[in-house]
Amino acid sequence: MTNSNGLAGAPRSRVRRALVVGGGVAGPTLAMFLRRLGVATTVLEARTSERGDVGAFLGLAPNGLQVLAELGLAEAIAGRGAACQGMRFENARGRCIGVIDHRDHVQRFGAQMVMIRRAALHTALIEAAAERGAECRFGARVVAVDERPNEVVARLESGEELAADVLLGCDGIRSQVRALTLPDAPAPAYTGLCDVGGFARCPEAPLEPGWTVMTFGRRAFFGAFAAPGGEVWWFHNNGARAAMQAIDPEQQRASILALHRDDSPWIADVVRATPTLLGPWVLHDIMTMPRWHAGRVCLLGDAAHATSPSAGQGASLALEDALVLSRCLRDADAPQAAFARFEAERRGRVEAIVRQARKNGDGKAPAGPVAAWFRDRMLPLFLRLGAKAQAEAFAHRVEWAAPGT
């Protein structure tokens, strides 16, 4: 039995104090599992509040929801989003050229993908971590990491120093922890795509609630999810990296409208109906790194293996990492042994998904008339292969009561 903090009767870790850098997806989740082990845990987030600029929306896949279920949070967090019934793929003329149906996923995988605003997910996780006894500090930017005998010390921008047995970097693709402790790590690679998104009310858009529509436009890619209640959550991808970074929001809107001027008219309606454009974000990934840990420091989530959004697995992989790393710290005799076990268990899976995401993203690039004709006819085959890879990712399970118990 455990109490509300997940402590009573739980196995205890040899680690007693942990610093978790990053208050996004992996960080608060990791903190909750560490609290289950009786570890005094402090989450350090550079943003000054939980409501900072954290992006638009994402999908929580069944494998990620399984981790949240282990924490007793799956139902509550799913309630902050909406189930995704599936994805329809359209060409620039609006003709459906393929479908991936998710409606049987509860039976197949135990859960159905949930679309959720990123800010809502971050808030839910950080609140749950605090309720379970983790100290969560905003405006706590780490500027130096120093390993000393039997401990690691993080120095904050304020000058304050904090010591712990381990420091765990969950601070995303531009990880400060990675830069400070693994200077030989490769820089994130540009995927060839930029992303802009937003939330709009556009009742005239011909979108079925609960479905995501992916449009291969003539000059850019557009995705839209029809959330219950009539709101449209959307994103736009193109490769105009310099242009998207250099213009103001209304110039961005005009640029997006121009890129989709020959595509389905509802796309322009949605873009015009959006009060505030979010982004742009230049999309990067990390295909592989020589190592994920050094001494008493370990990276996880996007800090170790960033994937582009094109696989729909970034948040779910971060959730899996949090469970597996906590379990390794529970079972190993020393942090370094736990980190090595964690990396060995996770590397193959996550790097395969990063490669698949890059391949998916490459398919969003604009195609000439001949290539578009070929794509429209071959997409059903490609989607069957993609659905198989997706099913393998969704079916993956990481168990808390595994290896050492």
UniProtKB/TrEMBL annotation:
<dbReference type="Pfam" id="PF01494">
    <property type="entry name" value="FAD_binding_3"/>
</dbReference>
<keyword id="KW-0560">Oxidoreductase</keyword>
<dbReference type="InterPro" id="IPR002938">
    <property type="entry name" value="FAD-bd"/>
</dbReference>
<dbReference type="InterPro" id="IPR036188">
    <property type="entry name" value="FAD/NAD-bd_sf"/>
</dbReference>
<dbReference type="InterPro" id="IPR050493">
    <property type="entry name" value="FAD-dep_Monooxygenase_BioMet"/>
</dbReference>
<keyword id="KW-0503">Monooxygenase</keyword>
<feature type="domain" description="FAD-binding">
    <location>
        <begin position="18"/>
        <end position="357"/>
    </location>
</feature>
<protein>
    <submittedName>
        <fullName>NAD(P)/FAD-dependent oxidoreductase</fullName>
    </submittedName>
</protein>
